[in-house]
Amino acid sequence: xxxxxxxxxxxxxxxxLIGEIVxxxxxxxxxxxxxxxxxxSEEQAKTHYIEHESKPFFESLISYITSxxxxxxxxxxxDAITLTRSMIGATKPTEAAPGTIRGDYAxxxxxxxIHGSDSAESAEREIANMFxxxxxxQYEQVIAxxxxx
Length: 149
Ligand code: IDP
What we know:
Elements (H helix, E strand, L loop, with lengths): L1 E7 L1 H5 L3 H11 L2 E8 L3 H7 L9 H8 L4 E8 L2 H9 L12 H5 L8 E3 L3 H11 L13 H4 L2
Antiparallel strand pairs: 1-3, 1-4, 2-3
The chain binds inosine-5'-diphosphate.
């Protein structure tokens, strides 16, 4: 089983899309281990987006992600990272397929609603950056026997 860090960004929180987004992952069969509304600190934001440090849009990215509440989550499941990335859709909403979160609801790249980890290494670092280990709840998913062979 794989864990991933997903975060409804400030635009998604303000647009009232937390429930819609959570529902999609729940219906897919992923298991929610942690979820909280929070304001990302400048330090957390810089750690989270460290790979974009040298990009021209870095400052505006940091300023946006710290501008208001986000909904941070940890989800678990088989191939959770690949599954959630494909449900989220391409970074540019103009290229995101209909049926994906960004394809259905987002217009601009800098307001593309949701973050999802792109590798197991990123997921581990991103989860540790936003959650204490004791905030992750481990439990048996009763429907697992229906989801997995
Ligand atoms: P991802 O969120 O689809 O994984 P990344 O390349 O990791 O995409 O970029 C992180 C976030 O930075 C994007 O979701 C987007 O909001 C923002 N971003 C990426 N590239 C640009 C850009 O060229 N201009 C403005 N914002 C960008």
